[in-house]
Design brief:
Blueprint (H helix, E strand, L loop, with lengths): L5 H6 L5 E5 L3 E3 L5 E7 L2 E7 L13 E3 L6 H18 L4 E6 H16 L9 E5 L7 H5 L21 E6 L6 H10 L5 E6 L11 H21 L1
Parallel strand pairs: 1-4, 4-6, 6-7, 7-8, 8-9
Antiparallel strand pairs: 1-3, 2-5, 3-6
Length: 227
């Protein structure tokens, strides 16, 4: 993830610092996942990248956050993320790519439902080709399925400023990024579409990169003004 958001980080202000959250479930090199978490603004970066062959050897050791085949695996990933935030936080925001977006969105929705009286653990969220969240209630029953609140018109992450960046040619998770966008507050969300696939805009896609940076800066700036 650090390699893939290098161009974004270069264009953003240098006052931001980043921590990175890694997966623990062994997996082949495959469509990515990633989470970064932001400090000062502090950001947490959560995930493992896609288009991975450009950055990593195919025979290396790689890890996912969880397995879609196991509700226990998802619950453990959520609990591990919660422990990480309690130990290393607080953070101002997060950057999450692909499966990292699904994990963090699921976590935020779970927290909002469990503790509606408490503020969410982040002031803003930036989703890069973000995956759709899983249903926290179904997970408690041992089932792994996507949350369908978007179809019902229920913004599950109401009040959270978000930026959603994904490719119009993302045949892998484009529909899931759209679902995640629909679940977020229509008054607080910003969408940036680029022409690539399941990837983060980089230096070779300068126009998309700069549009992404402007959207992130506006959102982070709003959060900073609001305190």
């Amino acid at each position: 993830m650090e390699s893939q958001i290098a161009a974004l980080r270069h264009e953003l202000d240098t006052i931001h610092t980043y921590d990175y959250v890694e997966g623990t479930v062994p997996a082949p090199l495959a469509p990515g996942e990633s989470i970064a978490i932001v400090l000062e603004t502090t950001l947490v970066d959560i995930g493992r990248p896609l288009e991975l062959e450009a950055f990593f050897p195919p025979k290396g050791d790689y890890y996912d956050y969880f397995s879609f085949e196991s509700a226990d695996s998802v619950q453990k990933a959520l609990d591990d993320l919660s422990s990480f935030l309690e130990t290393e936080g607080p953070y101002d925001g997060l950057i999450a790519f692909s499966l990292g977006g699904a994990l963090t969105a699921t976590y935020l929705i779970r927290e909002a439902r469990r503790h509606p009286e408490k503020p969410l653990p982040f002031k803003c969220a930036i989703f890069l080709s973000g995956g759709a969240p899983l249903d926290p209630v179904a997970l408690e029953r041992g089932q792994v399925r996507l949350l369908d609140d978007a179809a019902a018109g229920n913004q599950a992450l109401r009040g959270l400023p978000t930026v959603h960046i994904w490719g119009s040619n993302d045949e892998l998770w484009g529909d899931r990024s759209e679902t995640l966008y629909a679940l977020c507050d229509p008054h607080e969300r910003t969408k940036v579409l680029h022409e690539d696939g399941h990837a983060v805009p980089g230096a070779r896609a300068k126009e998309a990169l700069l549009r992404s940076v402007r959207a992130i800066r506006r959102t982070v700036g709003r959060v900073a003004i609001a305190g």
